[in-house]
Design brief:
The protein has one domain. Helices cover 38% and strands 16% of the residues. The protein contains 6 helices and 5 strands, in the order ααβββββαααα. α5 crosses α6. The longest helix is centred in the last third of the chain and has 28 residues, at 143-170. The protein starts with 5 loop residues before the first helix and ends with a helix.
Length: 184
C-alpha cells in the first residue's frame, strides 16, 4: 500500500511549527482603489479588514467609509438565474450610500426591472440596523431577482454586524472612545 503525504502533511507541519495557539495568517484579497472611487471620490487607500470588508481612507488617513461585498456570504442566495452579488458602500457613520449589483448571471431584463424599480436605492441613507429592519417590497415582474438582492444584502449586513462585534471585542477601548466622541 502506497501512502502520500502531500498537502495534508504540509498543513500538519505548518500548524506544528506555528504552535497550537498561533492562528495561521489569512491573506485577504485586495480591492483596487479604482473599484472604490465611484463611491468615494476622496478615496486614497483601501484596507482589507476582514472577509469582504474594506475600510476606505482619504489622503490624510481618515476613514471615510466602508465597502462590503456580499460574496462569499450570499453565494448560495439565488435570484432568478443564480447568485446576485452586491457591493454595499457605507459612509463613515455606517449609513448606506450605495448598493450596486456586481457581475452576475441574472437574466438582463429582470436585473433591469430591479434597477428601474429603485430596489438598489431602497436602503440609501439608512444605518445598517435600520436597513436590516426595513421591509422592502419585491419589484413586480422580477420577484426572484428582487428577493435574491434583498436576501444577499441582509445576510451581508448581519455578517458585518458580527465582524464589528468581533472587532470591538478584540479592542474594547475603541467602544469607549466612540461613546465619548458621540455628538448630542
Amino acid at each position: 500500500m502506497k501512502t502520500t503525504h502531500g498537502i495534508f502533511g504540509f498543513v500538519i507541519a505548518a500548524v506544528a511549527f506555528c504552535g497550537c495557539d498561533a492562528p495561521l495568517p489569512v491573506m485577504l484579497p485586495e480591492l483596487p482603489l479604482s473599484e472604490v472611487t465611484p463611491y468615494f471620490s476622496e478615496a486614497a487607500e483601501v484596507k482589507a479588514i476582514d472577509t469582504a470588508y474594506y475600510q476606505v481612507h482619504d489622503a490624510e488617513g481618515n476613514k471615510i467609509g466602508t465597502v462590503l461585498l456580499t460574496e462569499p456570504y450570499s453565494a448560495t442566495v439565488n435570484g432568478y438565474n443564480g447568485p446576485t452579488p452586491l457591493l454595499i458602500a457605507l459612509d463613515a457613520d455606517d449609513r448606506i450610500t450605495d448598493v450596486s449589483p456586481m457581475a452576475n448571471q441574472e437574466t438582463p431584463r429582470y436585473a433591469q426591472r430591479v434597477a428601474d424599480g429603485g430596489l438598489y436605492g431602497a436602503w440609501d441613507g439608512l444605518h445598517v440596523d435600520e436597513a436590516l429592519a426595513l421591509e422592502v417590497d419585491a419589484i413586480s415582474g422580477a420577484t426572484y431577482t428582487s428577493n435574491g438582492v434583498k436576501n444577499s444584502l441582509a445576510l451581508r449586513l448581519k455578517a458585518y454586524q458580527r465582524q464589528l462585534a468581533k472587532d470591538h471585542s478584540a479592542n474594547p477601548t475603541r467602544s469607549w472612545v466612540k461613546l465619548f466622541k458621540r455628538k448630542p
